[in-house]
Design a protein that fits this description.
The complex is a heterodimer of chains A (66) and B (261). Chain A has 66 residues and is mostly beta strands. Chain A is 11% helix and 36% strand. In chain A, strand 3 and strand 4 form a beta hairpin. Chain B contains nine helices and ten strands. In chain B, strand 4, helix 2 and strand 5 form a beta-alpha-beta unit. In chain B, helix 4 packs parallel to helix 5. Classes of the chains: A mainly beta (66), B alpha/beta (261). The interface between A and B is medium-sized, with 25 and 40 residues. Strand 5 of chain A pairs antiparallel with strand 4 of chain B.
């Protein structure tokens, strides 16, 4: 299964939910927020959000800003 | 002047300098600038995390200062991007404050007034306190107010330009029209005198970043801005004289030596 994470194509084993991807990619302990296909997904919904082939995931963290 | 603290909702800010955290030569330089200037709030953003933990390290620098943070939606050109970014910021930073940027032109980084209003309406409906980065357009200010914005943040000049207050007439007019509204000049500030001028007009705060982060000595410049903002505020409260076309002698002429009529 193919998932696009922060613009980069990543191969993952299906079936897959959002929490699985976050865990596999090493983000679990990090201060992050996530959007799937342009829609915000709250932390409480990660395990309830099943992914499909081609889903676009944005994972963001605090950065400097003006 | 502890009684002159600016409040945003129930939060009392410790100063009227809103300081950006971007573009400093080092994390230490950012930390020193914050220490010296003691800003009322600091602005932050969200960017893609590469699983290296850079976001957490950045946040660790800031959180010890115990200063309220204002996340932004910098770089968003659409309402959808801005709304999703705001939602992500609320979860990461634990605040419903959002500096709403919906950019309409990538050369001037001028806000898109139509997208800004639409995004503001949506975010207010979702429970956000929206700080809209806007042009100095009166009607836009009125529409944003009707939408529920308690704060308006007109630009002084394009972001990072350092030009100062491009249109003092429009900025003064906004201040006169929105008497009760919290008004913040955001962007384009280059020198402490620009910030002082905004405060002398009666603006409630000034938001700036590049003028400090790109200064030769960011910490010293941050301190200079803090003093200028305080001076401008105190000057405003003290009541400025009206400018006149002709001279008026300050020293009384009566009984001056060699006086003759």
């Amino acid at each position: 299964m193919r998932v696009i994470i922060n613009g980069k194509e990543t191969r993952c084993e299906a079936p897959l939910n959002l929490y699985d991807v976050i865990e596999q990619q090493g983000y679990v302990e990090m201060l992050i927020a996530v959007a799937r296909n342009g829609e915000f997904v709250p932390k409480t919904q990660y395990k309830l959000t099943d992914l499909i082939d081609g889903d676009q995931i944005e994972i963001v963290a605090p950065q400097q800003g003006g | 002047m502890s009684e002159d603290r600016l409040k945003i909702g129930e939060v009392e800010l410790r100063s009227r300098l809103f300081l950006g955290t971007a573009g400093y030569p080092s994390p230490d330089a950012l930390g020193r600038a914050i220490e010296v200037s003691d800003p009322g709030l600091i602005t932050v953003s969200l960017r893609r995390e590469n699983a290296g933990g850079s976001g957490q390290r950045f946040w660790d620098i800031l959180k010890d200062f115990d200063i309220p943070v204002l996340p932004n939606t910098a770089g968003c050109f659409s309402v959808k991007e801005a709304v999703t970014t705001a939602e992500m910021a609320r979860e990461v930073f634990g605040t419903n404050w959002i500096k709403l940027e919906v950019i309409g032109d990538d050369y001037t980084l001028q806000p898109d007034p139509f997208g800004l209003l639409e995004a503001a309406e949506e975010l207010i409906a979702r429970g956000f306190e929206v700080f809209p980065y806007m042009t100095d357009d009166l009607i836009l200010g009125e529409r944003l107010s009707v939408a529920g914005c308690h704060i308006l943040m007109p630009w002084g000049a394009p972001i990072g330009s350092g030009r100062g207050l491009n249109n003092p007439y429009a900025l003064k007019f906004l201040r006169e029209r929105f008497v009760q509204k919290t008004l913040v000049v955001d962007a384009g500030i280059g020198a402490p005198s620009h910030a002082a001028a905004a405060m002398e007009m009666g603006y409630d705060a000034v938001l700036l970043n590049t003028a400090v982060s790109k200064a030769v000595d960011p910490a010293a410049m941050a301190g200079a801005f803090a003093k200028a903002i305080t001076a401008g505020r105190e000057g405003y409260l003290a009541g400025l004289i009206e400018a006149q076309e002709k001279a008026t002698a300050s020293t009384p002429l009566l009984d001056k030596p060699f006086w003759h009529q």
